[in-house]
Amino acid sequence: MALLEISGVAKRFGGVAALTDVSMLVNRGEIVGLIGPNGAGKTTLFNCVSGLIPPDRGRIAFDGSDLAGLPPHARAWLGIARTFQLVQTFTAMTVEDNLAVAAHTFTGAGLVQDVLRLPGARRAERAARERARVLATFLGIEHLLGATCGDLPFGLQRQVELARALCLRPRLLLLDEAASGLDSTETAAFAEVVLKARAATGAAVLWIEHDVPLVSEVCDYAYVLDFGELIAEGTPAEVVASPRVREAYMGSGGAAPGAAGEAPTAGVPAVRTRRRREGVR
Ligand SMILES: Nc1ncnc2c1ncn2[C@@H]1O[C@H](COP(=O)(O)OP(=O)(O)O)[C@@H](O)[C@H]1O
Ligand SMILES: [Mg+2]
Q: Which candidate, 196, 228, 131, 68, places its Cα nearest to that of 188?
């Protein structure tokens, strides 16, 4: 059974068909790329999976259970965490507080204990801070714990957002253009952190990304959306070679996406685990 199974999902906004009959699978521990031109429906699909909006049609199942009707926080409890296309950390708070707030979701003692500051709440707070510190150390950003998020360079804010998602102990991590706006060194560092997190936790990743060399380097499998429709899927090499994908990006006969004069992303580590195939595509 696949970890995430999206079947026949459709979503319209007025006259715009943001998603039309989209089906895809993410297996446990897999890193799956989701590419497609702007407006293709990628973020809309994430919003449907994370529960921010309901699809008009279709089914989204996580670990075999239909997610329909579950609000975002319930999906987070089940193990679905995401980052946003525009970084959404609490900029006025420290890195530690950002991470602790997320970690607290899992160690939370409950509202009554929190409000009354009962011992259970203090224990939960300590546990959340401990988890935040452990995670920051694991990701190599422990020296930033005391920094105010808004003061950090953009690349580090992206890492904090990722760390915060990892504090939720996800089994599925949804990354929405997490490397956009990063230079090649920051991108390589970010990819390394994602691979390290996957290796350590076994979390699967569904990664929306425009940087095709990056997708090719880190993803086990890739899907391509165009105008709300799935136009290709396969290994990154297969989708980049697909005539329909080339057409979607460049017009008929054009170059492969991301291939036009771009050097491959520098220094993306070649740490890959065996591709798993328990879900049948
Ligand atoms: N909340 C919304 N209201 C109206 N239209 C939307 C909304 N969200 C997305 N859209 C439209 O749906 C289409 C897909 O958008 P989006 O999912 O953001 O694409 P992508 O992330 O692939 O760039 C676009 O035409 C966009 O304008
Ligand atoms: Mg988007």
A: 196
Which residue, judged by its Cα, is nearest atom 6 of ligand 1?
13
List the residue whose alpha carbon is closest to atom 4 of ligand 1: 13
CB distance 191 to 33 below 8 Å:
no
Residues in the chain: 281
Would you place residue 202 in the very low, low, confident or very high pLDDT band (cuts 50, 70, 90)?
A: very high
CA of 9 to the centre of ligand 1 (A): 15
Instruction: Dig out the tokens for 224 from the structure.
Output: 């391509």
pLDDT > 80? residue 153: yes
CA of 269 to the centre of ligand 1 (A): 33
Q: What domains can you pick out in the chain, each with its CATH number?
A: 1-79+171-281 (3.40.50.300), 88-168 (no CATH)
Total-model pTM: 0.85
The residue whose CB lies within 8 Å of the most ligand 1 atoms, and thus the one to mutate among 9, 11, 12, 16, is 16
- 3-class SS at 195? helix
Tens-digit pLDDT profile for residues 131-152: 889 989 988 889 999 999 889 9
Cα within 13 Å of Cα(246), Cβ side: 13
Distance (Å) from CA 209 to ligand 2 centroid: 9
pLDDT at 43 over 90: yes
Q: Beta 221-226 vs 229-234: how paired, if at all?
A: antiparallel
3-class DSSP state of 129 = helix
Q: Which residues contact 28 (CB under 8 A, 6 or more apart)?
A: 2, 3, 171, 202, 204, 276, 278
